Amino acid sequence: MIALELKNISKTFGTFKANSNINLQVKKGEVHAILGENGAGKSTLMKIIFGLHQPDAGGEILLNEKSIKIPSAHFAIKSGIGMVHQHFMLIRPFTILQNIILGFEPRNFLGFIDYTKARNEILKISKSYNFNLDLDLKIENISVGMQQRVEIVKTLYRNAELIILDEPTAVLTPQEIEDFYRIISNLKSSGKTIIIITHKLHEIKEIADRCTIIRKGEYIETLDVRSTSEEILASKMVGREVNLKISKEDKIPGEMILEISNLEVKNDKGLLALKNFSLKLARGEILGLAGIDGNGQKELVDALTGLRRVSKGQITLQKKNITNLSPKMIYHEKLAMIPEDRQRRGLIMDYSVKENFVLQRIDQKPFSQYGFIITRELNSFAELLMEKFDIRPRNKELKSSELSGGNQQKIILAREISNNPDVLIAFQPTRGLDVGAIEYIHLELIKLRNQNKAILLISYELDEILNLSDRIQVITEGVASQSFIKPTKEEIGLAMGSGK
Amino acid sequence: MKIITSISSVFLGLLVGALILKISGISPLEAYQVMWEGAFSKPQYIAYIIIRSTPLILTGLSVAFAFRTGLFNIGSEGQFIIGALSAAYFGVKFHYPAYLQIPLVLLLSIFFSGIYGGLAGLLKAKFGIHEVISTIMLNWIALYFSNYAVMTEGFHRPYTETSEFINPTTSITFFENIKPTNQFWSDFFRPPVNAGILIAIISILVVWIILNKTTFGFKLKSVGFNPEASRYAGINVEKKMTQSMIIAGSLSGLAGALHVMGVSKNIAILAAHEGYGFDGIAVALIGSNTPFGSLIAGFFLGTLKYSGQKIQSALDAPSEVILIMIGAIIFFIAIPNLWRKKS
């Protein structure tokens, strides 16, 4: 039986065709992946299914083999379609229970919310899928993985038979991803139909039965996942051959350049996030710092860049003590940084590309003189960098928010490299990027290493760490625990989990 | 795009005003004709509009400037009072010749109102107190402090609720002695025209240069757009916020000082806020937080307020209609979905 079918669905925004003549067939009880790069039109398509966008005239949507129109999200929910958005739609000060029933509250004869009835119903759902939810916790106090489970229960509470998940693992830790896979297989075995939007290939191999590929708004192909390799999926998604595994030649590291010794740093709650943390980084090497999110990586990066006070210990760069210097001074000591969150920390999204290039250097010659900006210099600098790093579209006056994620990341990379740093800290440098952009960033990092720069790669993606690093250090609960050279994935995974 | 928003909102506001007039049994066409003629039919009317608009342009500029650093300066009203008080006080106390007196009094007014504005910035930077809360409080402190100061010995004018008049050398009504033979210009200069508007225009230019041409403005705006990324880029965010509020405060204070030196010549006990600062918020909004926008929006609001009085006497229509119109304009500007393209 076909749970959902789209025939010739198109969606145009102004002159931009986000979807053109897309066909999709999802069988009842299967896990169906929608694969495509960022901006390929996956999310638009899902919003059409969930009633948030109306398709152009000419197409047809069939739900359970009956032709329907979905005018609103409310109608979609009523028809048994549930959606979990990439950014969760939860009210943070409300409890789990309140969030789940929000908008569909059962009432007693007085018109008040019948919490007992709601609780029993949700507990029944929670038990049958092993969700393990404490319904009275507030959203702001639970982990991201837990929040996602709340979102899923929310759709089940609304009797969804077809559940759409938008980039479900983007924000999860490796452990939470494992739990998520388990939940999906439970849902599937109870007969639910699942659509997963993703650009992660191993995720598809792990949980999906079939996969529909979309490229530049167009339907490419639907494949059976078992009989396809990740390489084939990648090349069909991008439209050319892609290097998933990057080869790099061995290189003997040079002198030590960054030394972190016995560092103690507190987190926002005032608890120790780094305990007696030590690390050495040499020229010409990529040191991968592996660990699960929340083990002190953020605090380490903040301390290195001067945004967080170091309470004990020392950071030395080129034999110079840079502990607790201001971000500006550290920048001038040639320590560069790709921050974890490019939109919040890396870029001023409302500033143009050329302005973002000089964010840290506007006070220096040749970009300004006597406090006045020299636009001509900004322009030629921007043109140079955009050419060199192939930033598209080639328009330095565009706001950064108008560029794709991959090109935004290139702006940051170009800016940081242009200051000719000795040390580059790359914190989740490929987060949320598609395969093509990831490949580019990885190649650039290796190029820098070959130019004898020192690179500290901090990532929650184990594959990325294994792929790029010359040496791997594991961080668990703020302590530098084990270190490895060329380990297996299992060894690292074990070391990452051992602290917990 | 923003210009279209403002112009359409103004148009819609005029429509709302027409509706209200109609409901009150007054012909909107007639009322708007009275307002138009009351604003532009005689040169002296235009002069009065300029006088009326000058403080609004500057308080609007003040609010707009702070807004570009991500700060909502509700304190323009209080900063205006501090500027006016400083100008009156030093204008009374100092007896220098005009070429010394005027710059000195202006600088001191700017200085004290700048400190007053900076205080809110400092409170935010050091203790995280939201500027909206602190500036509202500071408005009242300024009001009562000014009322107290007016009544002090040596500043207070006996048997009145006002201060002494400022020394004549403090006055910026330079054009009083101009007696043009040309009919238009002689009419134009009949009202107490003063140099305030020139200083306001210069301020507009200076602020435009700061925001668009200097590294200082670059950093102020980047803090306004994204304080976290700015901190990451090595900008001292707290310092920039304080500096921005100092400048915003001195612009509002300048408005107050010019008002005293050009129009009122003294200050009086205030029962309530006069509203120059609050009107500044409207000006900044209509002018979409840009310097030249503040100039145009300031003139627009000044014109409305001046010509609006005239429908009262001519048609016995309530001049409060003007306030409703201004409210409606702001309301329309503030509806973002009205102006965004449908997705």
Explain what you see.
- The radius of gyration of chain A is 25 Å and the shape is globular.
- The mean pLDDT of chain A is 90.
- Chain A has helices spanning 42-49, 73-78, 96-101, 115-128, 144-157, 174-189, 201-207, 230-238, 297-305, 327-332, 342-346, 353-357, 375-388, 405-418, 435-450, 462-468, 489-498, and strands spanning 2-13, 16-27, 31-35, 60-63, 66-68, 81-84, 162-166, 193-198, 210-215, 218-224, 256-266, 272-282, 286-290, 310-317, 320-321, 335-338, 368-369, 372-373, 423-427, 454-459, 471-476, 479-484.
- In chain A, the strands form five sheets. Chain A has a six-stranded mixed β-sheet with strand order 6-7-8-3-9-10, with helices on both faces.
- Chain A has 17 helices and 22 strands.
- In chain B, helix 3 crosses helix 13, helix 4 (76-93) packs antiparallel against helix 5 and helix 8 (196-213) packs across helix 9 (215-225).
- Chain B is globular.
List keywords for this structure.
A: 500 residues; 6-stranded mixed sheet; 26% strand; B: 343 residues
Brief description of this entry?
The complex is a heterodimer of chains A (500) and B (343). Chain A is α/β, with parallel strands linked by helices.
In the predicted model, the low-confidence regions of chain A spanning at least 5 consecutive residues are none
Percent in helix of chain A: 25-40%
Strand percent estimate of chain A: 25-35%
Structural classification of chain B: mainly alpha
- What sequence of helices (H) and strands (E) makes up the elements of chain B? HHHHHHHHHHHHHHHH
Biggest interface, chains and residues, is: A-B, 28 and 21 residues
